[in-house]
Design goal:
The chain is 85% helix and 2% strand. By secondary structure, it is mostly helical. It starts with a helix and ends with a helix.
Length: 306
Amino acid sequence: INGLQLKVMMVQILVGIFLYVNCLMIFTFLKKEIFREDTRYILFAQTLLVDSVLLVLSDVMLIWNTYLYPIHMIPCIIICTFVTVLTTCTPLTLVAMCLERYVAICMPLRHADISTSRTRLLGLLIIWSLSCIAPLFTFVAFLAVVHPGALFSSAVCTVEILYEQDWQAQMRIVILQLLFLTMTLIIVFTYIKIMIAARAASTDKKKSTNKSLRTVILHAFQLFLCIMQFLNPYIEIVFLKLDISVYGQLRYANFVIFIIAPRCLSPLIYGLRDEKFFHVLKHYALFGFDTFFSGFKGCISKLPGT
């Protein structure tokens, strides 16, 4: 096995592990009604689903690029547009999760009135609508400048293929910068508010407040990695013109650090740190044997002489 094949194999192992964990968590979410009625877990489930689909599509595109496999332009354009929508959806959902924690900690008496099925639906519509702004602009701009005959050709599918002219990439950067600046300000606002609430909280509430504070910090780190993911194509294109071997190594490094890594944080933040969710997750991960062993241990403890 040469170095290129080994890298591809390692990426497939990482992707497989990630997808298994995500599918197990999505299954756990669907099995319990209490999770399906909680805004925090609904946003978490959306993050899992979006990240899983995004990872699969990104992995397929990585393999196409590695082996220079050309596909028809029309499906390539559709896939690239959809990938960009999903890439923007994840950080927007993270911001929504931070806002949900802000309402739960700083406005506990109004949390039940604010977090309703109607506001959840409205929030999800806003997230997906904002996620579509930059990709739809890029899609329409590409169709406006591309030669009609090019749509019926084949090419190695990358997101950069949508940028026929420099002004398209520059406009996309401007839109994303405005979007991520707004998201950063919201996360900083929620962090400061929750930090103030943590200092003023009683001893009983201080533990949950501090945990929410750490959650916002982790989301901020995720958002930083997501921002870097949008900048990667512009960094990679420079190395593509300079050295193709360095470009290949950089692309693999960026895929692992800025695509796989931030999507491993979501299961960690809510799937493993959340005691309620982790208890149910462990039950399904062990195929229900945890209940059997707990019952068996209880029977043993009741025997005479134990």
